[in-house]
Amino acid sequence: MTFGGFIKEKRTEKGINLRKLAELVNIAPAYLSDIEKGKRNSPSAEKMDRIAEVLGLSKDEIEVMRDLAANDRPNNVAPDISEYVTSNESVRVALRKARALNLSNQDWIKIIEEMEKAGNKK
């Protein structure tokens, strides 16, 4: 699925027409139409946050939306992740170390499980 396809699907599920969503997000209807058709890249992180709010997206749906937005642009990551990585030196060091060690998907699953355990202790 594409970012635009996802937005269109969620918009139609909520019974919101394209013009109304564009108005509520404060973007041009033509721009939103182009996004939904895959003719334009996803909007700014702020506009995506507003889309999520208007459409009442769940946390999981917001993450999917952000990942799809990142897929719209080559060599890009979801805006929320990019923000976190660029604002935290330890994260950058950890990611470079992981790349140097060529961690597998299974290694990452173990790391995620450990993070979740640590988060549950708080």
Describe, in plain words, how this protein is organized in 3D.
- The chain has 122 residues and is mainly alpha-helical.
- Helices cover 73% and strands 0% of the residues.
- The chain is built from 8 helices and no strands.
- Helix 1 (3-13) packs across helix 3 and helix 4 packs antiparallel against helix 5.
- The protein is elongated, with a radius of gyration of 17 Å.
Key attributes of the depicted protein:
122 residues; mainly alpha; elongated; 8 helices
Average of the residue pLDDT scores: 92
Overall form: elongated
Computed CA radius of gyration, to the nearest angstrom? 17 Å
Major beta sheet summary: none
Distinct helical segment count: 8
Order of helices and strands: HHHHHHHH
Structural class: mainly alpha
Helix percentage range: over 70%
Low-confidence stretches: none
Strand content: under 5%
What does the oligomeric state look like here? single chain
Number of strands: 0
N- to C-terminal distance: 37 Å
Please give the structural blueprint:
Blueprint: H1 3-13, H2 18-25, H3 29-36, H4 45-55, H5 59-72, H6 79-86, H7 89-101, H8 105-120
Helix pairs in contact: 1-3, 1-5, 2-3, 4-5
In short:
By secondary structure, the chain is mainly alpha-helical.
